[in-house]
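Hi there, hope your week has been kind to you so far. Do you reckon you could talk me through the fold, stretch by stretch? I've dropped the whole record in just underneath, so have a look:
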Amino acid sequence: MSDPAISVAMSVYNGERFLSEAIESVLAQTWHDFEFLILDDGSRDSSLEIIRRHAAADPRIRVIARENRGLVASLNQLLAESRAPLVARMDADDICAPQRFERQIGFLAARPDHGVIGSLTFDIGERGESFPLDTAEHPLTHEQFLEHVASNGPLLAHPTVMYRRDVVLAAGGYHAAFRHCEDYDLWLRLAHQTKIANLPERLLRYRHYSGQVSNRHALEQQIGVAVSRQAYLERQAGRSDPTEHLDALPSIELLDELFGRKGVASQVRAHVARALLYSRSEMAGQGFELLLEHVEEGGRGAELWRTAARLVRFGEPRRALKLVAALAR
């Protein structure tokens, strides 16, 4: 059998709730020449049963079932087992527009200097309803992508992406140290090697709900994002990336030593603190202690004072007073 034009890579862990809809949206693509790799990462629900049922009805689906190893290991395994030169990412809780693959493969065929193409998204809630966000749109051109990197804007929605397999393999795939933001780190590494863009069409319905990773692991995710940005600046300056071979990131306190210069830990702490100001769970948890450390290092601004008022609304009056006292010193 000849190799397919596209390998679709989906990792699933306890994804039964939205899984069938996600799979069906891939099978309904107007571009038919693809293999669909679905890796069940040791699910404890009916995910594997759902996957096998769909695989029995469509020979393009290839099922990979094993014990739980986590998303980064799953993504790298899917990348290694893909047979096509192009890999399309897909998550188990989102919905592809029918023309997604056709539009993306056409873009990459016409632009050999681009290694990654995503798209805009239509954001939905748990029941498929519109989920409006007060955030900037993803960048459309590579030049805009680099501007978003500099301004800490959104880059790519991971499940919208199609990329050249050889380019991602040459970059080392997904790095284990950046768990919960492995895609963000990958985009920053690829930015030094290829052009990256997004199609202006909304080719994926991106689902938001309380159980997704960005809600459950916000603190670890934001620390990883901040460290990956520091690594990007190292590479941009022509220095070696000290995170390249790490299996896990050190604590923030050790980042100055890791990067070999002072100020990295403080910059990471400032990024994370300000990224979590609106997170009720983090302001009631570890994120608040990190915010206080940022203030003690000189962090100031109207948004921090507004956070004190927000803490009262969150039912955390003692923390609000503690923050006000730190800001007033």
